[in-house]
Amino acid sequence: MARKTGSHAETTGPRVRAAALRLFAQSGYAAVSMRQIAAEVGMQAGALYTYTADKQTLLFDLMREHMADVLEAWAAQPQGGSPGERLEQFTRFHINHHLDRPEGVFLSYMELRNLTPKNFAEIEALRRSYESELEAILIAGQENGAFSVPDTRLATMALIAMLTGITQWYRDDGRLSRERVQKIYWNMVRRAVKG
């Protein structure tokens, strides 16, 4: 099939990834075929292989992009402040960043089981890098007496799970604004680390 007018790697590649992300989040990775992704973009299934090696690579690339985006956005946040200030900043950042990317969040948590061991190891390393940012804040708070948690690693995992869960139920047109949700969750996080 001839290349469609206007079909270029810089435009079609992102459209392929966006379609795959949407379909994987809606139906699950295992239920989505390359043919469905191609139909969503308006191309023949064989043409997809111009943009990705296979479905596993597409899933891995989407997860890697999501985690790289999270890490880059967090690194761009102003650094410094007390552990309490940093924890509030992390809480608000995590909520706001993830609410804008619910499909990516869903994929990154629910489809890990579908990665090959090699791909899983790479995504897990990126996730641990992000988790380590929060754990470092908790450790600093433990050291200066601001926080009291029995296990900083466990507290890290619990807090991230709590904050990430917001993407499952929050709606911009719901009864609570983002700012209100951030404030309520920050108060819960603050109380959780006081011991």
UniProtKB/TrEMBL annotation:
Chain residues forming the annotated DNA-binding region: 33-52
Source domain of life: Bacteria
Domain HTH tetR-type: 10-70
InterPro entries: Homeodomain-like_sf, HTH-type_TetR-like_transc_reg, HTH_TetR, KstR2_TetR_C, Tet_transcr_reg_TetR-rel_C_sf
UniProt-listed SUPFAM superfamilies: Homeodomain-like, Tetracyclin repressor-like, C-terminal domain
Molecular function per GO: DNA-binding transcription factor activity; transcription cis-regulatory region binding
PROSITE patterns listed in its UniProt record: HTH_TETR_2
TM helices/strands, residue ranges: none
Protein keywords: DNA-binding, Repressor, Transcription, Transcription regulation
UniProt name for this protein: TetR family transcriptional regulator
Organism: Harenicola maris
